[in-house]
Amino acid sequence: MTANQNDDRSVPPPSTAGLVLNIADLNINRENMFLDDPEDLYINVVADNTLYASTITFEELNLLPEVIRGLYREMGFKRPSKIQAITLPMISSPSYKDLIAQAHNGTGKTTCFGLGMLGRVDPNLRAPQALHLPHQALKQ
Ligand SMILES: Nc1ncnc2c1ncn2[C@@H]1O[C@H](COP(=O)(O)OP(=O)(O)OP(=O)(O)O)[C@@H](O)[C@H]1O
Question: Which is nearest to 75 in space by CA: 46, 47, 111, 50?
Answer without folding.
Answer: 111
